[in-house]
């Protein structure tokens, strides 16, 4: 990493790292590189450094005590230099890989710590693996810890490897050290270090490449860079003077289609947007961000009519970064900015995406999203020309409420209460209570007193590229419910509104009393819930979460927890950006407060915008931390609350990635060992939601969680059984998991769950698990012994489509065996299956056609299908617009034709049937083409049908497909060509259409089935002299000679016949030339 460290980090004159976006991103890059190296190269990461990395750390002995094994906590330190923590792992000389010492020396700028401990501790590390563990202990303080390491070790390459960090020389020096070392022990150590250097050098090259690209891009500012620096500085804001800034916000929340925040007439001047910055030691500043840099403009000025307009004229010099501008403007900012922690984490770049599993089976691969996420209703955010920020949404909400108030019912609240939401806070005579008095006058309220145009924007919610890509929306979120207009409102409605008045304008004691009084009402009653919202109580409750009074926060959360079960309340909380204060409360040491917050988030996160907000504000990591509880301990309640919130948040694909990245898999595996069903239900709920992702399935299987999922199927709790069965349903996509379910004796438990016909969710999950497990033939044999087919046949009557899809899929899997087909026929299961062919559910049609096709392999079952007119129904499905249905129907038609009595006449009886199936050869779907070719190969066995499809142009269509690279299509295409060659001049027509030469290339495939089908096709084509010449020119003889000795008789015969035809043509040609 020498070249990157020496060229990319930005240093101040005091030999300290500057506070900049570049340094922030590079620190995060280094952390990810260390984590990935330890996962992908565990042996090399344990190599012993030549000299230790040494720095002043923010870690304290208590952090090591909480982690359990792996560390020896010797003592608490003292005034004299003393070793207090060591690692259990030791070097070759018996000394520990890590030492933490309490230092008696003092420093003027000790690294900031999460607590008030001002002691100085020095850390020494001798391996990358231990360094990675230390960074994990640092948790959210990883960037600060990495910054201290870099500042204390300016040349880490020299320290770690004993070579210079100059580009191009480090590898050579390390190799010479390795080759010239005579001591075997040191040679082994240097060998590991050399391999580690090679790994780190590859990352170094990636960093340098990205640096080159950024240098090209850095010639001018763009919206992305401005936003990134804004987000970094936004994390440095706070009322306390320890923060670098009081606040920083976008001056306008409106975003144009090109991402700019400046109006179009200013964009032509290169302006990108405007920022409202409030330092601690000066007035509010309005900063203009342009492509050339940042400058302070003259702010708002009043015109002759008193209206304020922004004066865009520059009032300062242009600075390349916002940090440089603020350093020059604010003395307090310049003194404190370098002491801030990088709390904002930029997006992970593609170059650092891990490519294989990490420890404990944690799948760390992050490929492209496996399924497209559903789009949200973007009408809430803006139109085609731009998007609206949170303040606009709040104003819209207030206008909506005001508009609703103007259309009152016959019986309505008095004007005093109806206008309470606007008159109370708009009244300038009301006292402006501070935060510590549990005030609701926080700027988060949409009706708070106006701050003027300079401070009109309270908070910026970042607009991610995936803002419209959250999945898992329930129907209630996609179509917002509207409250029914009642002719009368209950008396409690007005009483609640009166209480909210005292909640908003009373003192701290009155606020607490009002909260307690609100709790006396039935808050699960919808009118009571909406009464709080209608009068503006939601804003007040959300604002109370920012107070310093813990009683107010707990009371507000208890109310929010109850009322947030209403879909309209959840949407209103999203409008108020209520997730931000809740996420902050997850860091509070009070256990009850954390539990209430997590439970409230679990309700609110049913709304897609709230789910996204939890991730944006770092809530996923905080919730995962709540899972760090030992089963049976007093912290178990906290773990239950955290699991409930994560179970709801996991409905988003982006959140699933964040949960895994936060290290949740080992914690979930640990919690599965508990007997507490209240904890097991949300834990398994998280797993079953996340199991739709392939990487999660690998991690679940490799972490040994399948055993616990199977064991919990026998518990007497249907909700837990549903989650376990659903998790197995999703995890059983891989055959390894199906085998594990059988080995852990889970098949009988799944079959027993099929008796719960009253619980549709449980039945859906159980039938789905049976379906996926039945795709293993050994499992099918076990299912047959458990009479599962009879149970499944009984479930095909009066069941929802979700259940039917799984039931028919399971029957189709069981019908792959002779015994399964026989039991299915004897159980009268074919008739209801054929009846389902008339449905419209696409997934159901795919499974039904597959099951019918499997049954058609049995002659007696085929007779039943024919009698029920099943083949005609299958043929009609070829007209479906869904390619999956088309392919599945065509695959089912092939065995039907093969095993039907008088199949030729049956096919001809379908009016337009042959023309339809030939026309499907124009499809672009490979699966459809392969299935249709297989069907045509069976249709062509009848001479009359072969003549008909020839007239419909089957030969040129088949010839056109011969250039395919799909072995599956090649096999069935070659079989179809072999069959079609038996009519008229089709052999000549195939040669003329250019089908012969591509077929020869099929013999180079590694698939034996392709070889057999191709040899048969070439044998038929070789009966035409011109085709023989084409084959010979393309080298077919050498390819076929090796196949003549094949153990497959059909391949052997076809290859020999083709060579014989070519040889006879050659002899005839030789005789003709002699004459």
TrEMBL record:
Residues covered by the U-box domain: 620-832
Biased composition (Basic and acidic residues): 385-395
Compositional bias annotation for Basic residues: 396-406
Signal peptide per UniProt: none
InterPro entries: ARM-like, ARM-type_fold, ARM_PUB, Armadillo, GSKIP_dom_sf
Pfam family, one: Arm
Protein name: Armadillo repeat-containing protein 4
